[in-house]
Amino acid sequence: MARISTLIARAMKRLSPENTATPFHPSLFMQRSLLSLAIMLAVSHQALADNVMTLPDMQVTAGKRVQSQDQTDLALSVASQADLERANVYASGDLERVFPELLMRNTGASVFPSLSLRGVSSSDPYNAPVGIYVDGVPQYLGTFSQQLLNIEHIELLKGPQGTLYGRNAHAGALNILTRQPDNTPTATLQSRFSNLHQQVSATGSTPLVDDKLFIQGTVYHDDTDGELTRSEHHGDSDNGGGNVGLTFKPNEDFSLKLAYARDRLTSYNEQYLADATYEKRRASVPLLESVYVRRVETSSATLDWNLSDALKLTSITSLQNYRHERLYGDLGFHWPETQRTVSQELRLSTQGDDRAWDAVGGLYWQKSRSHSEREPDSSAPLFGVYGVADSRIDSSEKAVFGEFTWHLAPRWDLTLGARHSVEKAETDYTQVDAAFTPGFVYSGNDTFTSTTPKIALGFQATPDMRLYASVSKGYKAGGYNRIGAITPSAVAYAPEKSLNTEIGVKSSLFDQRLWLNAALYRIDIDDVQQFIGAAGTGTQSLSNIGKARSEGAELSMDWHADEATLIRLAGTVNRNRMLDSERQGNSLTYTPGRTLRASAEHSFYFDGLLGEVRPSVGISYTGKHYFDVDNEVSQGGYSLVDARVAWLPTPDLEVALYGNNLGDKDYRTYSYLSGGAQFSQPGQGRELGLSTKISF
């Protein structure tokens, strides 16, 4: 055991931040990593105890049909509810602690998140590079900040997933899957109280008619205390909501689920600190507060129908109404916005074992209507700087998609896929003349057509090792900016396209006690979409800035060292750069060169009321990344430490002490330059708290 621990420590050292000065070479990184893994594989099986627990062979739906996780020919990370708990992940903004390859940052308030994966990013919350789905229902990125309750597991698909998931999966896709009800009534009460959060929630399900009709629901409230001084509310947020689902299942072959969710978020956390006051977390100038109020309602109907033992029909219909009201205090304007999106997906998929081929295919339709306004506030200190503006955008999408997997031989699989989509967009944009915003009127409409193919080859080298290679295209649609464009030429932007090549390996060792995954990738991007313009002024706009290339490597390890110990390690390295513009050689925004996550958990078992005590600790490293395409403002590499000690007197009761950012590290989630000075959004400081969970 000591020998294996030493080998793991050496492998971690190669990924540690002390080595960040080394030039990036993906092939060299992978060679060294695979060498470390090969040494581990050479260790005798006797080095592990005979009674260790095996890691679960999880079933996933990444390919829109049920598959074993280790049989998918794509890079995939999965986190269970237990994984979320041991990493203190209570909301979507905490997911970096289980998916270190996914960078998530608020570029202001919580309603404007920015996601980055494999060096592909976008600062635009309206056109995200990562598709987000909850039980198959597509989510608008502005709704991403949400509580994670009643979770079955979460799947992170890495690399372009446009074939099955469409235009918003240019860098990958995030599938959030919730637990489904059954004949056993269940209820769970949870709470956490810390110096930053006061959260309570309740989830439950019960059969209304045994074996046929089930109801489930969740309610929650999370009050976040800001860390900034000089203001009553700066940095605060208040989030509450709930959902309810009704599932009709007359037999094993048919299921219909009707679901409704409602959420409200009030956020005061858009506050930028000047460097002179940053470390003291003092608001630079205590003028008017900026506040956002976000309201979201989502309704959906999901039908699953086994037409036969070999064929399944799925239909997902959804309606999402989104509204936010933004009072941009110091700059003196009110910014209400609404969006209504209707979508329908209809697909057929094969099912069952021992087939010569498998396939999934279907149709997708979506229609969206948005309305944004800018209304100057005469009571604000900077009233008159920005004029009245009104933006209306209507868009629609129609697509046909499919993937066919041919099981060429007992150990070979060939997958061919494609998606063809037609998107239409039209806009009416009016802006009144003011000091910083010249007046103009703009109307436009356009049609964007795309075909995104994919080919993947999988080889089962041994019963416990699978190799794969894939080539695919990614696509992010063009469109029109909402409020923010300051000239007619800045309103429209063109599609972003990419070509992705990837090779990878998935393996399980020691009777599935150790799982190892690795991948090498390269993504060539045309017409990169990034924000340009003066940050912090409300006048930035999305624009195409040329070609870019992203290449890198990923490595992960899950190891049940014995029946009570779980060790995890995940690391990425990435190099991305602009190729053919005035910014040649610059990095894209929010794309760190290295990330690392290492964690360990051990359970102590006692007789009687003491039950189980389960301490865990984790450390996350995020490398240097830039906040603007000109690479003028950045955040250097930093590490965050989290820990948790859980006590389970019974399997249904858990009390835990937890801490995040235990070193109280200062880091920035967003920065911009104005008048030669840098202003920054601070990351969350040290959090110490107590959480409880009781299940019935």
Describe this structure in words.
It holds the Pfam family Plug. It is a multi-pass membrane protein. With 696 residues, the chain is mainly β. It has one domain: Maltoporin, Chain A. It contains five helices and 42 strands. The protein has a 22-stranded antiparallel beta barrel. Helix 1 runs antiparallel to helix 2. The longest helix is centred in the first third of the chain and has 17 residues. The radius of gyration is 25 Å and the shape is globular. The N terminus is likely disordered.
How many distinct beta strands? Answer: 42
Low-pLDDT stretches are 1-52
CATH superfamily: TonB-dependent receptor, beta-barrel domain
Radius of gyration: 25 Å
**What top-tier CATH class fits best?**
Mainly Beta
- How many structural domains does the protein architecture include? 1
Shape: globular
Task: Work out the strand percent.
Answer: over 45%
Please identify, by name, the CATH architecture: Beta Barrel
Helical element count?
5
Roughly how many Å apart are the termini? Answer: 39 Å
Largest sheet properties: 22 strands, antiparallel, barrel
Binned, the helix content reads under 10%
Structural class designation: mainly beta
| Average of per-residue pLDDT values | 85
Domain TonB-dependent receptor-like beta-barrel: 294-662
Biased composition (Basic and acidic residues): 224-237
GO cellular component, one term: cell outer membrane
Membrane topology: Multi-pass membrane protein
Brief digest:
Residues 224-237 have a biased composition (Basic and acidic residues). By secondary structure, the protein is mainly beta.
